[in-house]
Amino acid sequence: MIRVLFLTESFHPVLGGGETHVRQLGADLVAHGHRATVVTRRGEASWPAEDEIDGVRVRRVPPAGPGRIGKYLMVPGALRALAREAPGHDVIVVRSTRVLGVPGLVAARALGRPVILQPEVNGELSGEAFTWGWSRGRGLDPVVRRLVAVRNRWLRDADAFVAMSSRIREEMVEAGIAAERVALIHHGVDTARFRPAEPGERKGLRRSLGLPGGVLAVFTGRLLRGKGLETLLAAFEALASARPDVHLVLVGSGEGQALSVEEDLRADVRARGLDDRVVFAGRRDAVESYLRAGDVFVFPSVFEALGISLVEAAACGLPAVASRTGGIVDVVEEGRSGFLVTPGQARELASALASLVSDASRREAMGDRARRIALAHFDERDAAVRYRALFRHVSVRR
């Protein structure tokens, strides 16, 4: 039996790609007779400090409440929980190197436990992730990069590393980590749950979900700054004026998140006169129903490690228009399963959307290719097998 402890900034009930990934991986370990524990932040005071989800033990530490500062304030509590839990585990997986990387690594070493580091986003090892979104980021960049380079010398002491995208793997190698120590394992999805709609099923789904007819462009994910949603609304306004049959569905919420832009988006929709063309579906656990009801997936992120939402859409057979950034390029084959556009360029985004909206046969062909890519490279069962092998290898070697 392998006993794995995940140290991560956030976990269920937060809905996000990283949170979903850890939940899936923990549940898979339990299903195969192993043990999994998650130490994370107690984002809301109403969440229990101790919990069990899908057989995975969850230990939540303070402080509660939104805000970036909370991720740093959780470190003392996380280290205390780690000290209590580590003796009963064989491997510690530290998710995200920005906040928990060095503290988690040092604590695990003191406790005599092997460590696997897994960056949450691209830019963590290069330093770019620390200045993204700062108005003074350009001036601070050289200083930040020097500090990150010093920190990376500590991080290189980990026993193994996992990169969810080829870009993150490149950053690790550039940071001085030997290539053979980095496992490239894409996040996977349940390709049986996320599957294309059967013939005639799409109309029924739309009726049950209260969605309009015509052509539906769908986005799923948290409504946060950095997801490119402001650019999406500008692009959709241009598209909507030429195509009255097109609607945009935003599945997700920014509620309780420090970087939420949900209220700004709602105000922008009203200001642009798009109230009857844009649907705010809110937070949904069963996002697959919305994906299977849609025609095109749109993912305009400015900064994205991989984009589990994009993988889910591909598994549902949706062609995508997505930003050419981070790990997105690992999922979308340009011109074959979708189109890649420059982040932040509304005109380019609108043009790519228009080309798919106006051509049903092209959508079908690209959607078929997206589904094949998901089956070949992003099936969660394949990823789980590789993770279990990695955990076993690290625990035995140590």
| Count of distinct structural domains | 2
- Report low-confidence residues grouped into runs of 5 or more: none
* Major beta sheet summary: 8 strands, mixed
- Shape from CA axes? globular
- Average pLDDT, rounded to a whole number, is 92
What is the CATH domain class of the largest domain?
Answer: Alpha Beta
Overall SS class: alpha/beta
Radius of gyration in whole Å, from Cα?
A: 21 Å
According to CATH, the homologous superfamily of the largest domain is Glycogen Phosphorylase B
CATH topology of the largest domain: Rossmann fold
CATH architecture designation of the largest domain = 3-Layer(aba) Sandwich
Order of H and E elements? EHEEEHHEHEHHEHEHEHEHEHEHEHEHHH
Q: What's the total number of strands?
A: 14
**What proportion strand?**
15-25%
Helix coverage percent: 40-55%
User: Span between N and C termini?
Assistant: 15 Å
Strand order of the largest sheet: 3-4-2-1-5-6-7-8
Count of individual helical segments: 16
